[in-house]
Write a structure and sequence with these properties.
The chain is α+β, with helices and mostly antiparallel strands. The chain contains 13 helices and 32 strands. It comes from Nitrosomonas eutropha.
Length: 625
């Protein structure tokens, strides 16, 4: 079902030569029924001063196709006289605004935000910048190309915890590039009502939340990331919103029994503290399609990670998730065909898959969503769950872990409607939703009051992380690190409760410098270099040696990554003692040990002849012919 782009030139706050126009679609809210809508505006410098209230301007009602009732106003600001002495009204800078509805049945409804605002103020305030200047992209941006899917190494980040804001976070792009990362996945940047929040209850979608910075701050981060060879993927939340999202908030307070935008659609996982969006409504579909276009066009992002897909998953032929990723793919293809500037970053040549990154968080059916939609990747918890069970002592899950590292059952390519799409899934043992992996090896509480929110993993067991990092970063698929994983960040995260999202867990950069941190960083750097240098690890075949007697009973896991004559054997040992195990290499020759080299290499290997391998405890070996 085709989606249409909203006309953003008349929506939200749009400035032209010192005059700002406002446009707000409010279906079913009509002047004929006695409604009146106003916009309240105040300069950012005045907003906390008791003698300077916001200025209020009436909005005119009209009916505009295709969504109906439309409210608009044109407000001259530059050159106008402030209503109060000392006010900053009329000067350049940021202004905050909100809408108010006067309804004959329920009275005055204040504090309604703009669903198409490009900027935001504190809490429930929309914003615009008088004298805003578009960002000037660097010359290098025109030559940027999004990396091929199989080459991606992703680092998930929370801006508030990694750097604190966009300016300090962009300074870390050099560090991430040096680490070996070539993509970042950023937790939601959209506006929320709270100052400390993960961002998964958005109330504004078309811009960067003020707690992180301004539009240009994020554009500069993307620009610098691209200069460092790092793609930028943004986590987007479309299946549900916060309760202050205007298309829920306004209609709820108006006491309407129906809603033109919100309502039950598929699953409803956020019903306790958020509200579901109804993709059965063309307005809803067009809105989020326009959000995608806006972030790709204005911010030059390389892809989208779609949060909580079950909330808008109505199957591969539905009007929800599947339709949105299809429409976004076709939009990108058309932009490339029209030779629109900067969209060529997704073009890998005729007959090849677009490099637009679209992946789902569809943990209920990751294989299905990958096989049947235009997604080219997906989160999947199979590997995570198996690794966690093994780390907690369930040796029976070793085989599950070994199989999941090879993404058994996941497609590698689909040809749909003539579009050839390369496919794979993400591999991780840590992400924002869970406690740090080291917590599986022991917990400690440094808080004298015993508050469980201060629990953390025992970093004296840092060495037990090593085989899990080796396995994950050598596995099939796209590996993802969660910020600080490379130096052993150790906090515990409860499975539920406000403490998950209401506590700011600033990254413990001091861990980078202690002995465990240095050992782990060195290992991760080596592993990412190996992955970068070996095409058989990035995109080759995978074979798991599922033999209980020879390997798994000894807590050893062996798998091969290979392509033609390129062959790498990965051996890890999660046990407490060194192990020697037999192996029969299919390809003869000299094998270099990739982690440490030297005498650990295997010389003169004869094909299919038994070779004994020594695998150190809580560690591993990587041999490449």
């Amino acid at each position: 079902m085709a989606s249409n782009l909203l006309p953003l030139s008349i929506l939200g706050a749009v400035e032209t030569n010192g005059t700002v126009s406002f446009g707000f679609w409010l279906p079913w809210v009509s002047a004929v029924d006695g409604n009146a809508v106003t916009v309240k505006i105040i300069h950012e410098h005045d907003q906390f001063l008791q003698e300077i209230p916001p200025r209020e301007f009436p909005m005119a009602h009209s009916v505009r196709s295709p969504y109906g009732d439309f409210w608009s106003a044109t407000v001259p600001i530059v050159g106008t006289t402030p209503a109060n002495p000392g006010s900053a009204w009329g000067t350049a800078g940021r202004y905050v605004y909100r809408y108010q509805i006067n309804n004959p049945n329920v009275g005055i409804l204040d504090w309604i935000i703009d669903p198409c605002a490009r900027e935001f103020g504190v809490g429930k305030l929309s914003a615009f910048t008088l004298g805003y200047q578009p960002y000037n992209w660097s010359v290098a941006e025109a030559n940027w190309r999004t990396p091929e899917l199989s080459n991606l190494i992703i680092y998930e980040i929370n801006i508030a915890e990694l750097g604190g804001d966009l300016e300090r976070t962009r300074d870390l792009m050099v560090y991430l590039s040096d680490l070996g990362v070539n993509a970042i996945e950023i937790m939601p940047l959209s506006n929320v009502a709270m100052s400390v929040d993960w961002g998964y209850l958005p109330i504004g979608y078309f811009g960067v939340d003020e707690r992180f910075g301004k539009r240009s701050d994020f554009q500069k981060l993307v620009d610098i990331a691209h200069q460092q060879g790092i793609a930028v993927i943004v986590d987007v939340v479309y299946g549900h919103t916060g309760v202050d999202f205007p298309y829920y908030d306004a209609y709820n307070r108006l006491q309407y029994h129906e809603n033109p935008f919100m309502g039950p659609f598929a699953k409803d996982y956020f019903s306790s503290f958020g509200k579901s969006t109804n993709f059965g409504s063309p307005f809803t579909r067009d809105y989020f399609f326009t959000v995608n276009h806006h972030w790709l066009e204005v911010y030059h992002i390389d892809g989208l990670r779609y949060d909580c897909v079950p909330n808008y998953w109505d199957g591969p032929f539905g009007v929800g998730y599947a339709n949105l990723v299809y429409e976004t793919y076709q939009l990108t293809k058309n932009k490339i065909a029209q030779n629109q500037r900067y969209w060529n970053r997704f073009n890998a040549g005729a007959g090849t898959s677009l490099r637009l990154i679209q992946y789902a968080e569809q943990l209920e059916g990751p294989e299905e969503v990958l096989r049947t939609t235009y997604s080219n990747s997906t989160w999947q918890n199979h590997t995570f769950d198996a690794a966690k069970a093994v780390a907690r002592g369930d040796q029976r899950r070793l085989a599950d872990w070994g199989l999941s590292l090879g993404l058994l059952g996941y497609p590698e390519q689909e040809n749909t409607n003539g579009d050839v799409i390369t496919k794979t899934a993400l591999q991780y043992i840590e992400n924002h939703d869970h406690e740090r992996f080291i917590c599986n090896f022991g917990l400690m509480n440094p808080d004298e009051a015993g508050n469980p929110l201060f629990l953390k993993g025992d970093r004296s067991h840092w060495y037990m992380l090593q085989p899990y990092l080796i396995a994950m970063l050598m596995s099939k698929g796209v590996p993802m690190l969660w910020q600080g994983e490379e130096f052993g960040e150790s906090y515990f995260l409860p499975d539920f409760g406000a403490g998950r999202v209401g506590l700011l867990r600033s990254l413990r950069w001091d861990y980078f410098y202690d002995s465990p941190g240095q050992q782990l960083v060195q290992l991760v750097r080596k592993l990412l270099r190996i992955r970068r240098d070996r095409s058989q690890i990035r995109r080759g075949n995978y074979f798991f040696f599922n033999d209980w007697d020879r390997y798994l009973s000894k807590r050893v896991l062996l798998f091969a990554r290979y392509s033609n004559a390129q062959y790498t054997l990965v051996a890890i040992n999660i046990g407490d003692i060194d192990q020697s195990v037999p192996f029969w290499f299919p390809i003869g020759g000299d094998y270099n040990e990739e982690l440490h080299g030297g005498d650990l290499g295997l010389k003169g290997i004869t094909p299919l002849q038994q070779t004994w391998l020594k695998v150190p405890y809580h560690y591993g070996r990587i041999w490449t012919v």
